[in-house]
Please model this.
Amino acid sequence: MCINSGRVSVSIFRRFFSGSLQSCLSVSCAWTSSAMMALAGVALSASHAVAEDRFTLMLGAQEHWDSNFARNAEVDSEHYTRATASVALHERWSKQDIALGVSGSRYAYAQRDDLDVSFYEGKARWRSDWNSRVKTAFAWARDAYAVDRLEFADKDVVARDDASGELTLGMGKYLGLTLGARQVAQTHSNKLRDYLDFDEDEWFVASSYSTANKSSLSLRLREGSRDYVNPVPNAVAVLDFDYRQLEIEGSWALTRKTQLGFTLGRFKREGDVNAGTGTQALIDLRWAMSEKMTLSLNYSQSEPAVGETSDSPSSVRTGKLILGWEPRSKWLFTAAAGYSKQAYAQRLIEPARDETITTFSPLALTYQLSDLLRIRLDTQWVDRQSPLVYRDYDYVQASLGIALVF
Model:
């Protein structure tokens, strides 16, 4: 399990206009140390003008083509449509900052209408600067996704609700102390997988240091417990566990054009099945090669707990390379490549093994036809290599979408 995390791709609009590299590389969850991420809203991240709007309404539809939807060694293609709608409100007055957002998605499949599904996501945030030294923040986020066929062959939507609150005390010009708590609940819509539903409670304390050039460094201690609310009857062992994690997080402006962000953590789990120590890591290097071209290098490492999903590996190591080019204000081209190595412990009917996933996204194009209308094109090739025949496959994905933003 990725302790202290939620799945990445938080808003419908950001998912709609972001590449699919990350979703193909993360088999359980994409780990990040920051549980108090700011509400992204529902506007296109590349469009600052839309992102600053007080109220935003988005309507979109995206057509997907998948050459191997069933995720097996045989060719089994599928075409499906994803329709989205979202609203967001962002209000600032005095030293208060409030943001609200909710979005809905509908998947409709051409050949497998039994998999048609609808679900919603949402976010809420309230930040207050009571004075120059005391700040508070409260946040709630609900992320959801339809499972991949490799993880589960039937219909299932995984939803995660994450609520948190924190109090920050300024200790001088550059030092700060933060106290906070979180509650997380993960649920599955399919009753056959409700044994993976869990509740998680956590408290944390952090000390941070920031500089005048907006660089920062923090040391954080997290402690909590996870309880699976629908355990398998007469199970020999339970998945519940307590955990403690110490982590260091930093964001550093190496040069005017280069930014380095990292989180390194060491955790200990105490439970029946989930016990032991491990390491979490996330390193991200961004370089503005020119005014129109950017390069991003990313490395992540996690050790998911048993029960995070029905297909949880014991360790995941992923590297990504993303190149962005904006030749004109209305055009954005992106190319990406990634490599992930996943280790699996021995199970009752499966041997211990390593699997690799190679991804290549030669073209992702976003075109802004007007202030209201945007078009998105994505292409991707994915190759999964495994010693198990039914898990050794490759496939090609393409999608074309349109969105109206008001």
Q: What stands out?
A: The two ends are 38 Å apart (CA to CA). The helical segments are 12-17, 21-25, 48-51. The longest strand covers residues 78-93. Confidence is low (pLDDT under 50) at residues 1-51.
